[in-house]
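Quiz preparation item.
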């Protein structure tokens, strides 16, 4: 059946009809008074979502572009930076840092395991000469469905006194609590096609006063990603370069939706759907990749050698798209996204399709309907 595609991946995520209609509006001039009013509202609501009074800047870029901007605006060539990695995206930030001739000091964990905050404490406390200028960490590791203990890691960074914390919150912002001001975060990057519930194309960077102080002496090259330009323009309800006008119309719509739902309800919904998905997978006899204590609210990774066959059946028979594994996990896991504009009904539909795929492959090891029943029980508790 045409036009029935259902995205259950970590991004792009489903887009509400209200936002689709906003995308279809006739563009207006990006230097007009009318668009200034849109920027003003969107900026205010971005600060609400980030739980901050600091700057939140919009870039025409992906989440990777936002993270690159978050790295290069506050550092100088040769600076020593801790780059934490326990998945594909942690590895990416190390590549970005090395591309800009930063001195990378790695902290790693096996894919599927959470980073150990104690390693950060030890390395930061040992830096008595205050040579470490930043700690770069992925909050929710999209490739594995693991969430890292950002709050504890950040406490160790704050105790260091000198280092900034630069956070990839691409699949946690809008799904999990990331209180920028309360935790004293310095740089937080995210992307529009995740919890923001609109298509790809916008990146967001929240910046603290401490980070702006570092910006004044940072010497890495930048032009389009120079966040100083974005701050200057945003303070005037404008943009330094031509923005994606209709994407911002859509963002205006989804931020209003999010405010109406409320932050606590958003966080509870994502947690409920995560628990339901994990309970369903377990009830079907499937193995979960991330441990319970480090399970991301936005995506669940499932271990099976039949990952690609399962994904293929779910897509061909039910028009539901689930994500595969990356790098060495390709064919070893599949990932179910429950991020952004995902309802409880979507979770039950995806689980039912997954059960049907297991039956078709002759891999079902549990009673038919066990997964749906387990998910329905969790969803019905709230």
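Solution:
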């Amino acid at each position: 059946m045409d036009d029935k595609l259902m995205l259950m991946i970590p991004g792009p995520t489903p887009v509400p009809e209200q936002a689709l209609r906003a995308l279809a509006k006739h563009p207006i001039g990006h230097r007009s008074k009318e668009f200034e009013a849109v920027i003003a509202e969107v900026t205010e609501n971005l600060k609400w979502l980030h739980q901050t009074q600091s700057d939140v800047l919009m870039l025409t870029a992906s989440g990777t572009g936002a993270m690159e901007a978050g790295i290069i605006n506050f550092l100088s060539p040769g600076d020593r930076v801790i780059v934490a990695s326990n998945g594909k995206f942690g590895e990416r930030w190390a590549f970005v840092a090395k591309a800009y001739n930063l001195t990378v000091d790695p902290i790693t964990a096996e894919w599927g395991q959470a980073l150990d905050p104690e390693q950060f404490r030890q390395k930061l406390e040992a830096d008595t000469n205050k040579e470490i200028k930043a700690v770069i960490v992925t909050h929710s590791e999209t490739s594995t469905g693991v969430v890292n203990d950002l709050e504890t890691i950040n406490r160790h960074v704050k105790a260091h006194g000198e280092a900034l914390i630069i956070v990839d919150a691409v699949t946690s912002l809008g799904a999990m609590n990331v209180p920028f001001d309360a935790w004293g975060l310095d740089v937080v990057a995210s992307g529009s096609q995740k919890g923001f519930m609109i298509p790809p194309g916008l990146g967001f960077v929240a910046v603290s006063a401490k980070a702006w102080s570092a910006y004044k002496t940072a010497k890495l090259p930048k032009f389009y990603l120079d966040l100083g330009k974005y701050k200057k323009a945003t303070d005037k309800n404008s943009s330094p370069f031509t923005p994606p006008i209709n994407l911002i119309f859509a963002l205006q719509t989804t931020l209003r939706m999010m405010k109406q739902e409320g932050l606590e309800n958003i966080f509870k919904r994502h947690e409920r759907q995560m628990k339901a998905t994990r309970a369903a997978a377990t009830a079907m006899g499937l193995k979960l990749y991330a441990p319970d204590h480090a399970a991301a609210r936005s995506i669940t990774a499932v271990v099976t050698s039949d990952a690609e066959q399962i994904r293929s059946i779910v897509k061909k028979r039910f028009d539901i798209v689930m994500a595969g594994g990356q790098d060495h996990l390709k064919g070893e896991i599949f990932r179910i996204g429950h991020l952004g504009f995902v309802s409880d009904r979507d979770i039950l539909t995806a689980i039912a399709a997954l059960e049907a795929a297991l039956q078709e492959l002759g891999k079902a090891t549990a009673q038919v309907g066990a997964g749906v029943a387990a998910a329905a029980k969790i969803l019905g508790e709230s």
